Amino acid sequence: MGALPGQSSRPTGVFDPHHPPDQALINACVHCGFCLPTCPTYRLWGQEMDSPRGRIYLMKLGLQGEIAIDATVTEHFDACLGCVACVTACPSGVQYGALIEATRTQLERIRKRRLGDRAFRGMLLRLFPYPRRLRVAAVAAWTYQQLRIGRLLRGTGLFRHLPDKVRALEELLPTVHFRDLRGRITTSEPAAGSAGMRVGMVTGCIQAVFFAGVNRATARVLAAEGCEVVIPRGQGCCGAISSHAGDEAGALAQARRMIATFEEAAVERVVINAAGCGAALKDYGHLLRDDPDWAERAASFSAKVSDITEFLDELPAHAPRHSIAARAVYADACHLAHAQGIRSQPRRQLRAIPGLTVADIADTEICCGSAGTYNLVRTEAAEELGRRKVAEILHAAPDVIVTANPGCALQIKRHLPPGRSPIPVLHPVELIDASIRGVDPFLTG
Amino acid sequence: MILDAGPAPATVRPTSLAEAREAVAREGALLFRGGGTKLDWGSTPTRVDRVVDTTGLSGIREWNAADMTAVVRAGTSLARLQAELAAARQWLAVDPALGPGEAATLGGVFAADDGGPRRLRFGSIRNLVIGLVFVLSDGTVARCGGRVIKNVAGYDVAKLFCGSLGTLGLIAEITVRLHPLPESGVTVRIDAPAEGASALLPEILAAPLEPVALDWAEDALWIRFQGRAAGVEAQAAVVRDLAHNRGLAVEELQGTTEADRWSSLVAGLAGQPGETVVRGSTVPDQFGSAVEALRRAAEDAGVRATMHSHAGLGLHTARLSGGDALAHAAAVADWRRRLANLGGHAVVRRRLPGVEAAVSVFGPDPSGIDVMRRLKALFDPAGRCAPGRFVGGI
Amino acid sequence: MIDRRLQDDLVDILGPGGVWSHPADRRTYECDGLTTQRVMPGLVVLPRTTEEVVAVVRACAAAGVPIVPRGAGSGLSAGALPQAEGVLIGLARMRDICAVDPANRQMTVQAGVTTAEVNRAAAPFGLYYAPDPSSGIVCTLGGNVAENSGGAHCLKYGFTSNHVLALEVVLADGEVVRLGSAAPDLPGYDLRGAFVGSEGTMGIVTEVTVRLLRRPEAVRTLVADFESPSAAGAAVSGLVAAGIVPAAVEMIDNLAIQACEDAVGAGFSRSAGAVLIVELDGVPGDVEAEFAAAGAICVDAGSTHIRVAADAEERALIWAGRKAAFAAIGRLSPNYVVQDGVIPRGRLPEVLDSIGRRSREAGMRVANVFHAGDGNLHPLVLYDGSREGEQERALRLSIDIIELCVEYGGSISGEHGIGLEKACSMSRMFSQDDLEVMQRVRRAFDPAGRCNPGKIFPTPGLCGERSYRAGPLESADGDAQP
């Protein structure tokens, strides 16, 4: 009897036979080390076992059954941010992203985590992928902020005594706007006289609840560029968080739901404005490869997905842009630059705004430390990376900081120096939207 | 110099590697002599029983012009070597003083790590040597390196022999890397006493120029360019402009005039009998301070001093004259002290008799002196190769 | 395993975060860029300062335990292969830029700083560090010093040795010495010169002072297609004969081109038998004249197409393609061995023929990447490790090739070092006396032989009985060359 789909027929060492890290992918690594300087954890700690090369080596040893997946080894895998900057740097084409995801999924099955750990991860997995629940949490957050409880905690010195992860959560929390708690984005009419490509929009979870402005801007821009914008209800979450946390069942369920929703909406293209989600959506074909009922549908869905800047960059013509006189510093989001290879499109679209200077930062390929929920579960490393990223950004003297992922935006905001008027952090589409409408992007809340 | 005092030691002149081995392996304290132009460098050896004259080990053994390498016996005079290489428009990129009768040999230049102004562009001779055959006092005959320029097999033992002043063993054969002779050249000479030169130097260094030499001597800056005609002319023009902007007089030298002027300048680096020659070293941007330090030291000691500096490198050759040995020694010690404050050092070359007794030739022992002593003990266990001639009394 | 007491001492010195004893952790250090040799170290330590290195070395010396230094572990000759009963000292955490002196064009850095980082720090001053090993993005200065690393531009600018002014070294007994100095010509034996290229067998580099150069005013790069490596080789000879000294001349053969294009897509012609990358830099007038001449020489030698890099971006892409060559070969073949031999430039066609013949006889494909300007070959022997005996045959073929280089008057290593991989081949190139003298140098630095033992020099245990090359006296008039 042969192996089932997803079951390895080779010996898998300490991993179980269901999708262990792929030996062929591991063999592609020639141990050259080109990935080391680009890995955030190697940059921080300078140790081989917390570098892509080292982690691949541990996977290899695991497959060979030569090491146990104990706490030490698990720690190295957990410490990986999943930023896949190493994939960009690797001359041999090693698909590290697939390897670490397979490994993390295995770890969820093999390892028993500490109670506190499990509780926190469980909370994240039960909250973030569910926009409705997130909205409820947002109401709580809004209340928290309105009642200035944070100030009270800090003033009384209680804040310091909160657990690390809770503190991190609190510090990352953006200002919640009341109107964002209620509103759905209405689908807009295409501009008069246009051909009207039917484009579906993924609204995301964090994006929808905490950065609804970005979604509104996205819808407006698509409409201005002549698209019929469709925002299907009940699309749910893209599943990236579950996927990266190794919750395979959760990720699959969320993917199926997303695909089904958009199939029903019968759109020609699917547009997403969050880098992390975009990478996950484009990976559905791979995620659902074992499921004969969904494999083709997933691949077909993924083929329709574009990041908003990618989509705009492909359009043959654009609505006129009005001037925004400002110096924009663009910070690449890892899941846009590394995972999707999208670097030039956002820069081109920003440069198409008259009056806007677009500057890059040093070390742009190094992760800011947000990495999904990384900055909630591994606070120390994330904080250091966040500080470094903001230092590089400030060094470039921005009037406005532009980044294409909500997680990155939260992380950057958190580490900007406190002050009266902090430098605005915007999504590229917010600037483009303001440019099309001829409004000042820095006046909106 | 030691050879002047007392009866002359026996001289032997091997003409083959086997003879050289025999000459070296026989007991007694040895002094190796090529052209005899730098025998007074380093401390005076404590004992010399036999002089080994290397001029019998002479000639190009193998010349791979296509590869631009040559295997040359160490006793070959540098002048003769360059003349032969010139036939194929190649040269060994070192231009040291050749001494009386142009007798300096390749081996001697290498053993003394001597060089000239064009070291700025081509590096010292240690960068041009890719292989060596040598004879140790215990009779070992060995080689290091090879015949190709790029080679990391084994240790770079040749580096240890460079500048070793014959204290590690006899250098019998040297494989060198060659360069093409330049098509064209020009030297721009700018009238600039020390202060003016100091001010102009950073500008020249910052300019988009690639001089082969950048020296200061006879109260003038000498900037030499070599290469294709177009490039050389363009660079000379840049320097002329820089000089004119500061109102400094400029002279351009080419052809044999240029060659002769450089010859005479370089010959001056060796000094004259009756002088004490000191080689000071600093980082290049301390040039002005080095000149001033020499002026002060000489003044305080009551001696005259001139300086010829490879300003682009930070190598400053001082010639002391007038006064007696003690005055010279005082000037040396003072200059050395001031250079040390700048992070530099000074080494005495030729000197008046009596200077050596009053001031150290090499200065304080360098870091790693213990390793150097162990090295000497391993290469020359009986301590017969120019004993006492080197740093730290090695 | 390492003695418990030594381990505790090391934890006292470095803190628990600096000492790694868990077997899985130690195994990630068991090889460097050469994966065919693996030894699990007894212990791994990661110091951050010279003081910590000294304390570690002293503790190991007191315990009589060998030490092996390691930079980024990107070396290709197993130079950083650990000792099973030894302590591996990783320098990767020593990443400070200590001082930059733009006026004197010098920079001092800790040994764990990468080549790329040195260039990054020099760039704001319009300066750069000339030696450019292809792994420059990851390889450390300490490692470069150990191997005397070269790179494509060493043809004109020289190797690491030509650009290292001073070293801070911790000797195997814990003594700290400064070799060389910022001011030139420090009195004494040139220990700095001997140390560079000593592959970690003389001590541990903790700080390096390097020479920086001003960026050349003009740079021009071309890629010339040829029908065969021989034709390309003829072009190289033509350049030399014309008195042109390019900054770099690189050759990539057809098989390697496929890999480069798969990895980087630099635009090399996939149908060319070989391509030649020629780069000239210097003073604008000279560069223009020589560049035109170089193009003409290539055409005369039979180049079928010449592409001139239009701007810095295109030049960077061309070099990215070339520098990815080794690792990119992994796309063509499950496994490969990269070798590093040198031959006199003029004998390239003959040597290539020989390599071709031997690879056919062995039934294995060999891709070739050369530093054509200085005769440094990098044959890459492709094989499939999962097939019985193939790895062994590939390794043997690669050793055959470099020993062949010696027969043609060349060397068994141009820049990767001897390490463990080629120790046995040293007897082809050197006589017993030659090697014995080198061992004396090593003993001067490390009398107890504790620093990276077992590297470079052949031993009967490792190599069995070998015949050595004849010494200068034994061969006709001092040499045994054909």
Helix content of chain B: 25-40%
Number of domains of chain A: 4
| CATH level 1 name of the largest domain in chain B | Alpha Beta
Spans of at least 5 consecutive residues with low confidence of chain B: none
Second rung of CATH, namely the architecture of the largest domain in chain B: 2-Layer Sandwich
Strand arrangement, major sheet of chain B: 4-5-9-7-8
Strand tally of chain A: 8
Task: Predict the CATH topology of the largest domain in chain B.
Answer: Uridine Diphospho-n-acetylenolpyruvylglucosamine Reductase, domain 3
Q: Give a quick account of the main beta sheet of chain B: strands, pairing sense, barrel closure.
A: 5 strands, antiparallel
Got a strand count of chain B?
Answer: 18
Tell me the fraction of residues in β-strands of chain A, as a range: 5-15%
**What form of chain A results from the Cα inertia axes?**
globular
Which two chains have the most extensive interface, and how many residues on each?
A: B-C, 92 and 96 residues
Count of helical segments of chain B?
12
Binned, the helix content of chain A reads 40-55%
Task: Work out the helix count of chain A.
Answer: 25
Structure report:
The complex is a heterotrimer of chains A (445), B (394) and C (482). With 445 residues, chain A is α/β, with parallel strands linked by helices. Chain A has helices at 23-27, 40-45, 52-63, 71-79, 85-89, 96-110, 115-127, 131-146, 149-156, 164-172, 178-182, 206-210, 212-224, 240-244, 248-265, 275-282, 284-287, 295-304, 308-314, 334-337, 344-351, 374-377, 379-395, 406-415, 428-437, and strands spanning 197-202, 227-230, 269-272, 305-307, 326-330, 356-359, 400-402, 425-426. Chain A has four domains: 23-110, Alpha-helical ferredoxin (Fumarate Reductase Iron-sulfur Protein, Chain B, domain 2, Orthogonal Bundle); 115-178, no CATH class; 181-313, Rossmann fold, CATH 3.40.50; 321-437, Rossmann fold (3-Layer(aba) Sandwich), CATH 3.40.50. Chain A has 25 helices and eight strands. In chain A, the strands form two sheets. A four-stranded parallel beta sheet of chain A has the order 2-1-3-4. In chain A, strands 6-5-7-8 form a four-stranded parallel beta sheet, sandwiched between helices. In chain A, helix 19 (308-314) crosses helix 21. Chain A starts with 22 loop residues before the first helix and ends in an 8-residue tail after the last helix. The mean pLDDT of chain A is 89. Chain B has 394 residues and is α+β, with helices and mostly antiparallel strands. Chain B folds into three domains: 1-181 and 364-394, Uridine Diphospho-n-acetylenolpyruvylglucosamine Reductase, domain 3; 184-267, 2-Layer Sandwich (Alpha-Beta Plaits), CATH 3.30.70.260; 270-358, Alpha-Beta Plaits. A five-stranded antiparallel beta sheet of chain B has the order 4-5-9-7-8. A four-stranded antiparallel beta sheet of chain B has the order 12-13-11-14. Chain B has a four-stranded antiparallel beta sheet with strand order 16-17-15-18, with helices on one face. In chain B, a hairpin with a 4-residue loop joins strand 16 (304-310) and strand 17 (315-321). The longest helix of chain B is centred in the middle third of the chain and has 17 residues, at 229-245. The model of chain B has no long low-confidence stretch (mean pLDDT 96). With 482 residues, chain C is of the alpha+beta class. Chain C has three domains: 4-90, Uridine Diphospho-n-acetylenolpyruvylglucosamine Reductase, domain 2 (2-Layer Sandwich), CATH 3.30.43; 97-214, 2-Layer Sandwich (Uridine Diphospho-n-acetylenolpyruvylglucosamine Reductase, domain 3); 218-407, FAD-linked oxidases, C-terminal domain (Vanillyl-alcohol Oxidase, Chain A, domain 3). In chain C, strands 12, 13, 14, 15, 16, 17, 18 and 19 form an eight-stranded antiparallel beta sheet that branches. In chain C, strands 5-6-10-8-9 form a five-stranded antiparallel beta sheet. In chain C, a hairpin with a 5-residue loop joins strand 8 (164-170) and strand 9. In chain C, helix 1 (4-14) runs antiparallel to helix 3 (50-63), helix 8 packs across helix 10 (284-300) and helix 13 runs antiparallel to helix 14. Chain C is globular. The termini of chain C are far apart. At the B-C interface, helix 1, strand 4, strand 8, helix 5 and strand 10 of B face strand 9, helix 7, helix 8, helix 10 and helix 16 of C.
